[in-house]
Give the backbone structure.
Amino acid sequence: MTLPDSTLGAARRALRAELGARRRALSAPERAAAARRAARHADRFLQLAAGQRIAVYAALPAELDSAPLIALAQSRGCRVYLPRIDRRRRSRAMRFVELGGPLRANRLGIDEPEGTRTIGARWLDVVFLPLVGFDACGLRLGTGGGFYDRAFAFRQLRHTWHKPLLVGFGYAFQQVGRLSAAPHDVAMDAVVTDRGFLRCATG
């Protein structure tokens, strides 16, 4: 179901506020335990293996911490990449830079690698996406910047080959009954949470 832009925007803002409050209400030990469980689920169901090109986000305080997942992927021999937003002020383009060396906070407060070893989004194997909310059909509610939807818009033009695998990474309580789609939304294939693994209807 597609809603008018104004109605859809208002509904998404309200849902972001509600789910954001639930994330902020978690204690530090609860966050840490959830992150460790989610990393184990990712390893179990996706079978992380040496040589895979894995993109993971650097978590903001309210997001499910990606550090255990990054450490586990590295221990499996994966090549880990972090997203980096184009530093031109008005740009919303995103590149993926291999993890290694110093990190620097961008204009949104998100840590990014300073390195020069980049890879095109099309050549990644698995991408773990941060999310505010999600549904069983693979629709993702993000923060509203549209960076990931732009980076993976090419997937909407494919009918058979859907790499990279797009996997949401978040808390189980972030699942909602049904999200209304926006024209630019790129659906996820699966979601990993602290309670397990969900293969989405589109995946």
Notes: The mean pLDDT is 88. The helical segments are 5-24, 28-46, 67-75, 147-151. The first strand starts at residue 53 and ends at 55. Residues 5-24 form the longest helix (20 residues).
